[in-house]
Specification:
The protein is of the alpha+beta class. It has 15 helices and 19 strands. The longest helix is centred in the C-terminal third of the chain and has 20 residues. Bound molecules: flavin-adenine dinucleotide (FAD).
Length: 478
């Protein structure tokens, strides 16, 4: 996924750029870890966010251990060079985009699974481990790490922690934050730039001191570099889950079903929404055999075993019908069920094939999902923008995807206006501008509109205290 994105606007390599950083790094680090080739640098200078600005990196370090990260941060601090950390570069907010003359710290080679402790349901991993690789290794021991962003085949645990990634099963099992017990990080500030520190714990409970590990979760590379993570695990699920599908003649009626499911206290392990545009794009690409004969589909999954699970599945189908579904069915065919969830996971790359995709990531209280979906349709019409919508609907987390033909500047500007209007809409409904993708570059203005001004002051004070040189991912988030 990394490097396959839409951002091709990396500025030309400047005629003159700061060579001191490279000189100093070369003295202390093996040459094969340093990247100066401009084409390679350009490929790793951005994430997957459309139209987010990309600066000109001076050099990249493909670190293989924490000591190399420490050396690099110490050297960068000594001459004030910015440090932009990246995992797989699947981010959708520009968080991993280079800033001018920065050091790109690429951690994708730090992919050791350091320890699996089945007795305590804990594992310790390096940040470059890919989410699905960790899941596969744990499954061999009957263990499970639940957070499952749709990017799990590519995205790294370090990136997931730094963005507090969500995913499909987070409705029932929680987000990345709920699984991070502790971590190691290379930090700066009073601790000294380049210092490696252990934060958090590996016990089930613990309140010794401020929760600085928790602060690092979702900090988007702005407070330091995460070099190791201790994760809470669960026993692997057994049994075949139930899949319940509802087809709706409008997005809003699908939204009503989401609100009703919440109101009735039902907690499926996933409740995802896909509109017709997404279904068609996936079908044209992958030919999974899914007919896009409705305006929107809701896909629910129930993993409760036994009669209780049967009952929950029935209740979900009943709720779909009560909300006005064209039809609702329980799939007993595991292959068909997997195809539907595969379509959900593939929706974003399927649309990306058609042109630039500006991804929204708003979250509203679940009772407001129908209102927000209606507003998205109104904004699309008002700005003449094609919007395809996928959603972790059960969480109230909506991803309207704004499509624009390649090179059509008018369409880009209209999409960007629609994007900002949706942020205001979400805030107005008591929601947030970003549920899981992070602020990065794309949500900086929205963040200021959302947060209480005094909260913003406290957030900036934390950044100043922990990174007074503004070395770590400067110009992002705030
Ligand atoms: C097809 C697709 C589907 C997606 N689905 C989801 C989804 O369902 N849920 C979801 O939450 N997100 C989703 N995303 C967004 C993205 O995959 C997540 O944000 C993911 O957590 C990013 O991981 P990464 O390794 O690619 O990080 P990167 O994109 O490389 O970096 C993300 C941010 O984390 C920082 N960072 C990375 N590693 C470290 C580290 N070790 N220490 C400090 N900072 C670090 C970077 O500086 C940057 O700010 C999706 C993206 C795509 C392309």
């Amino acid at each position: 996924m990394a490097g396959a994105g839409l951002v091709t606007s990396v500025a030309q390599q400047p005629q003159e750029y700061d060579t001191r950083l490279l000189e100093l790094l070369s003295r202390e680090l093996p040459a094969d870890r340093l990247v100066v080739d401009w084409d390679v640098l350009a490929a790793i200078a951005h994430d997957e966010a459309a139209w987010a600005p990309v600066g000109r990196p001076a050099v990249a370090l493909r670190a293989t251990n924490e000591a190399e990260v420490q050396t690099a941060v110490r050297i960068a601090a000594s001459i004030g060079s910015p440090v932009v950390t990246r995992g797989a570069g699947t981010g959708l907010s520009g968080g991993a985009n280079a800033v001018d003359n920065c050091l790109i710290l690429d951690l994708s080679r730090m992919r050791a699974i350091v320890e699996i402790d089945p007795a305590n349901l804990v594992c310790v991993v390096e940040p470059g481990v890919v989410n699905n690789d960790l899941k596969a290794t744990l499954a061999e021991q009957g263990l499970w790490y639940p957070p499952d962003p749709a990017s799990a085949p590519w995205s790294t645990i370090g990136g997931n922690v730094a963005t507090n990634a969500g995913g499909l099963c987070c409705l029932k099992y929680g987000v990345t934050r709920d699984y991070v017990l502790g971590l190691r990080a290379v930090v700066g500030g009073d601790a000294g730039y380049g210092t490696a520190v252990r934060l958090g714990r590996r016990t089930t409970k613990g309140v010794a001191g401020y929760d600085i590990a928790g602060l690092m979760v979702g900090s988007e590379g702005t407070l330091g570099v995460i070099t190791e993570v201790t994760l809470r695990l669960r026993p692997a699920l057994t049994g075949v889950p139930h899949t319940i599908v509802g087809a709706f003649d409008s997005l809003v009626s699908a939204g009503r079903a989401v609100a009703l499911i919440t109101q009735r206290g039902l907690t499926p392990s996933a409740l995802e929404l896909l509109d017709r545009t997404c279904l068609q794009a996936v079908e044209e690409w992958k030919h999974l055999g899914i007919e896009a004969d409705a305006a929107a589909l809701l896909l629910a999954r129930v993993d409760t075993p036994g009669d209780a699970g049967e009952g929950e599945a029935d209740s979900l189908a009943t709720a779909f019908e009560a909300a006005g579904a064209l039809w609702a069915t329980r799939s007993t065919d595991a292959v068909e069920a997997e195809a539907l969830f595969e379509a959900r996971r593939l929706a974003y790359p399927a649309l990306e094939r058609l042109g630039p995709v500006l991804t929204e990531d708003i979250c509203v209280p679940r009772s407001k999902v129908p209102d927000m979906l209606a507003m998205i349709e109104a904004i699309a019409a008002a700005h003449d923008v094609t919007i395809a919508t996928i959603a972790h609907a059960g969480d109230g987390n909506l991803h309207p995807l704004m499509l624009a033909p390649v090179g059509d500047d008018d369409a880009r500007v209209r999409a960007q206006l629609a994007f900002e209007e949706m942020l205001d809409g979400a805030i107005g409904f008591g929601g947030t501008v970003t549920a899981e993708h992070g602020v990065g570059l794309l949500k900086m203005a929205g963040l200021e509109r959302e947060l209480d001004p005094s909260s913003l002051i406290m957030q900036r004070a934390i950044k100043r205290a922990l990174d007074p040189l503004n070395l770590f991912n400067p110009g992002k988030v705030f």
